[in-house]
Amino acid sequence: MVRKITFHLFSVLTLLGFCTIAYGQEISLEEAIQLTLNRNLQIKQARFGYQVSEQNLYEAKSALYPNLSVGASNTYNYGLAFDQISGQLIRGNKWTNYAGAQLSSSVAIFQGFQKVNQIKANKVQLLIDATEVEKVENDLTLSVITNYLEAITNGELYEAAAQQVQLSKEQLRQDSIQFEVGNKTLADLAQSENQVATDELNIMSSQNAYDLSLLELKQLMEMSPDTVITLIKPDIESIMAEYADVSYENTFQKALSTQPIIEQAGYNRQLAEKQIDIAKGAYYPTVTLSGSYGTNYTSEGRDIITQQKMSLGEQLDQNKSFRGGISLDFPIFDNNRRKVALSKAKINYLQAENNEALAKRNLEKTIAQAIVDLKFANRQYLASQVAFHTAQVAFDALKERYDVGVANSIELFTAQTNRNRAEFEMIRRKYELVFRGKVIDYYIGNPITF
Predict the structure, then answer these.
(1) Where does the record locate the signal sequence feature (predicted)?
(2) Which among 105, 188, 245, 428 could bridge 409 via Cys, Cβ 3.0 to 4.6 Å?
């Protein structure tokens, strides 16, 4: 009776496991990548940085134009004061009113080409931020590939585990019947129950792994965890044929021209070069052109000849003034600040140059490793197919012997365990091969799709 209850409990658990994986909206790998790029907050953050650089470039260009400002003032003074407008000392207990307005402008007509070089530097910085957006997109794309294939792998492992549970339960049912008629021992029956329990644990682990990998994929796509989606499995045979003739040199040259990290390293070197030009500009003199126009009023303003008080309109007309000038500022000694700034700029350029070479070297190593991994994954998948086939044959043969009483339950349990492990390994190696192939597509800029 206890064994029957246990058997039914296993059946309920398996049924619950099957119900957990539901079928919903079908999403391909390409669609998953596009959804992530459209919704992911990391992309938005990188784009904000690009927009800030756009404003910095606009600001640098605007620095070439003259500035223009207008000002006005109105002051009241009580008691003793010197009226600078009328040029007299004001005495007595009374209020004096002063007012004025001014329009002024200035422009640096030469500054060692620093402003021009700053514009060029900001243009390069804009390109750097654009490649940063591409880099974030690439990183997210690789994350989607990883999680998508991981979810498919765990889903297929779950399906395999579910089939294994069904086989184990069928074996348990047969052994229970044989036990009742005396053809199987209690040890055989216990061994069958143990196999069912082991397979139940496998299906629970597979279910949990599938749920977690699917959740991570939904989070990348900024989807609600409750959204029900179905993933599309790749065609393994076509993928194996697609990457059969992958070569290192061809892959590396394509990666050099498509990977944003290489492009970004080149732009960083160009930016460092412009910073040297900006630092050199500090050694040149600065020539500034300026001008202003204004007028003023005082309540004590009087006509010089008649000494009659002048009206507001008369004062604004007669007190107007225009000032224009040009200034030359030639730096002689500034406590070696310019010298140090230039030296730092040159060091930064050498560092950027070295970083570019390092980025290319790292990409070279990565591509070489990716191709080795792809070829190794291909060999592993082929070997896992052979291993699964032989394990299946061995299990089938041993089961026939067990059914006629020639083999014992421990031998059957061992053969079934080996067969199950071989199937799980084959599934993992299959999608490992797909992942390694998609990594190659990622590095050479091919569309990521099945």
Answers:
(1) none
(2) 188
